[in-house]
Amino acid sequence: MAEKASDDNITTRSSNFACGVVEGFYGRPWTTEQRKDLFQKLKKWGMDSYVYAPKDDYKHRAYWRELYTVEEAEHLTGLITAAKESGITFYYALSPGLDITYSSAKEVSAIKRKLDQVSQFGCSAFALLFDDIEPEMSSADKEVFQSFAHAQVSVSNEVYQHLNQPRFMVCPTEYCAARAVPNVSSSEYLNTLGSKLLPEIDIMWTGPKVVSRIMTLESIEEITEVMRRPPVLWDNLHANDYDQKRVFLGPYSWRSPQLIAKLRGVMTNPNCEYGANFVGIHTLAQWSRCNVDGKRDLSLNDSVSADIKLETETEDGGTGEDIPSNLTPNMYHPRRALHNAVNDWLLEFSRPKQAWGPIMKPQPVIPVPIPVPILPSINTCMSLTTTTTTASSSSPIPQTVSSSSSHSYPALSTGVDGLPSNPPNTTQLEALAEVCSTVPNATENLPITPITAPVMNSLASESKIVALPPMATPLPLPLTVSLSSVPSGPIALPLPLPMSGTSTCEPMDCNPTPNGSPAHLAKTAASSTEDIPMAENGSGNSVAALGNGSSSAMQIDSTDFCSSNMVVEPSLEGESGRAEEVDGSGSKGLNQVAEKQSMTYEDVALLCDLFYLPFEHGSGGTQILHDFNWLKTHAHVVCRNHPINGCSPDVSEEGMKNPEVQEWYDRAKKLDDMTKAVNQLFTKLTNCPNRELLHEIYPYIWDFRWFSKGWKETFMSGEHEPWVFRGGLIADLQRLLPVDSGTDLFVYKIPEVPSNKMYDIRPANILTDQHHIRSICQSIYTSTCDLDPMPDLNADRFLGCLVDTEQLVCMVIEDEIEVVGYTLATLNAKQFYSRMKTDFIPSMQTKYPIQEGQYNLSSVQQERIGWFHSYDLEVPEQILSSHPGFINCGILPSVQDPSALKRLVVCTLAAMRANGCFGVHTALLSSDQISLELYGRLGFVDLNPGNSGSHTILGRSF
């Protein structure tokens, strides 16, 4: 591994090149404390700029006309002062584009008044942002301006001159090549901007796409010629607000340092989670100081380029780990930069810091049969709902694409000539379509009327974000939602109505219609505010209605912003190496921190590999994918020689000596070692002293406690924006499981208090595990009698003859102490029902005769005995044909993790599908609410609706 380069040996960046961070994403803004911490890091790393542009900070965009209060002014002044003390240029950005009337002198005066106020706070650099808005002028503007671009130019130039020509930037509406109409060179909008905007004003640009995989010299030269000035790159390589299942911890990549001479600056718009941006910002700082003159060091061997290199895959599917030994200090290599950043980031994990609030993570919502209104949500950018399907799925699986920050994009590597060193292979995507989701044509989607969600105030507290109630809109069919700290009562919200006959918005478009902005909504009286915990986004469910009557969206687990059970985790200073997690009652949590379990370089490097970049996994993540896929593909080699398939012991033993079989086991051991490393990382992270950092990263690594065709093709093609393939490495691993229609089973609620408790799932051994299974069943359906005269009754009643059924798929889940859950499934339900009627039920009638008064039985026990004597279940033939499998599952009531049983069921369904079964059902008494609720949470639906019989038949396909 290359040694960390000394800062003294790295060329200093040109003073004409600005480099820093733009806080420009959607969702919960950073806190004042976090921004001040950022300024210190930027100073330390040699960066010089920060742009304040949080999309959902209410006086930046939604309420851009409103001046700051005295309290807000103090916080903003403190930020500007802190930036100056660190030598950071603080750009205050305003986004008036949602509802501004460009021709109105009053509107322009409102911008001037707002920026004048901020100027009085000490700010000397400004920006106007016109991104993510509908590119149409109002009727009043059309009478004054020749075009949309002329309107924006007029306002920008006037405001710039009013402020005495400070440092000034503008973000255009066509901010990337993909949005230029019809293209960059022929765009009337961009050409007007370039020719009419005062030359001292910088223009921001995201590259070829919103989230650009690669940035070539040619593309930058093209936009420079059109805009008549070098652009300031608004880089979304590390932005993650468009997919809240992903976080990007990889190094700044796919951008040649030769670009530095072609740009006026680079501003990275990173992850929403502040603590997750250490590597991204740190490596950008290293990149910005390298190869300043844009020329290669000709004294070096020609095989090593000054360009950034993408580590190409090795034959075994991994990526190159070695850093070229002959790199000079002024040459940039992502792996060396990552190594340096990880070494520095490691210190942050041991820095004692407290966190406030429960962990909440947006989750996909399971489709419902009727349109559901959008509830208040922290993320205001959900403007498009798409439906995705898989090749073998019979029904569409809705998936919401939430809008991302103003700009975002990933990258490819460039060669010396600026061309991609790994050109996209679009033909590979054909294979990918077999397993991965595809985005349908625009005509298949119906746009949703945007509504206003709760906006936030990041200038009201040092360490918290304050949420303001949403606005009310006088639309039909209002939905009443009450926010706990709003004393004025319920707030009416609009029902999102599909608008047929219109084209859909792209995923990144947020509130594209001016009439959807707060200026055109009636304001709701609310004098109180709500605190959003630092840990994650706020609460509230967000569901967008689909035109077909189903729904899909990102759901934020319902927890009040200021709930009575709010979790407060103190820092670990003075705790002698032990941390306490305290709830509202002051009780201690489950986790105890051991000093010996501190994070290591290898742990942090693995964390970065698992959550790398939008278009590539790190070498560790790629290796896990490759090995898992190899084991799955070659499993038949082991299966055909296994005793479970009828081989005699001697044949089985001989088969295990087969080199192919031995290789499979060797690779399985290697994968097991990698999963143990991930588990160790999870445990150490959960116990780290920096609780704020833990709360921001925990939901992602917690989700990773899981292990398609197409993962390689996805990341080696630059034809798509990264939200087309959602979920990152976790989703790629899930796609390897043969459960196409089990997406909802991968939706887990994140624990409110970080916990490192883990479970193992394994095939059951009926001989040794049967008593555990029967005991769990007994615990689920408890008896009211202290001394139960019939201890086997519950297991006999609810397990039936499954344990002895042929073609049985049985799995158990266990913690470090005992088995806590089970699934019993048979591939042939017909055979199961036949045996129930002919053998099992008669034997149970003999075992449990109806003899009143013989035992002191409860009414529940009497009902269960009576079931044996009145058994009349008849499952329709059509159900047996479409859902030929039968399943029974259960888990101890003491298991609090809602994902445990889901994970177990996913493994069972995958095993059933691998054996040719694509549908499973279960038959429950209509009065058995416990079981009905259990299977309902697992996504089972009524297969025989309207049936008035004693049994309800639930099922699901996979």
Defining traits:
958 residues, alpha/beta, 8-stranded parallel barrel, 30% helix, 13% strand
Description of the molecule:
Its EC number is 3.2.1.169. InterPro entries: GH, Glycosyl_Hydrolase_84, O-GlcNAcase_cat. It is an enzyme of class 3 (hydrolase). It catalyses: 3-O-(N-acetyl-beta-D-glucosaminyl)-L-seryl-[protein] + H2O = N-acetyl-D-glucosamine + L-seryl-[protein]; 3-O-(N-acetyl-beta-D-glucosaminyl)-L-threonyl-[protein] + H2O = L-threonyl-[protein] + N-acetyl-D-glucosamine. One of its GO terms (biological process) is glycoprotein metabolic process. The chain has 958 residues and is α/β, with parallel strands linked by helices. The two termini are 45 Å apart. The chain has an eight-stranded parallel barrel. Strands 22-23-24-25-26-28-27 form a seven-stranded mixed sheet, with helices on both faces. It contains 25 helices and 28 strands. Helix 8 (278-288) packs across helix 9 (334-349), helix 9 packs across helix 11 and helix 11 (601-610) packs across helix 15. 50% of the residues are buried. Helices cover 30% and strands 13% of the residues.
